[in-house]
Amino acid sequence: MDPGEYETCTYCNRSIFPDVAECPYCGHYTDGKGRFGLGAEGERRIPRVFLIAGWLVVLALALPLLITVWNWLKSR
Question: Where are the domains of the chain?
Answer without folding.
Answer: 3-75
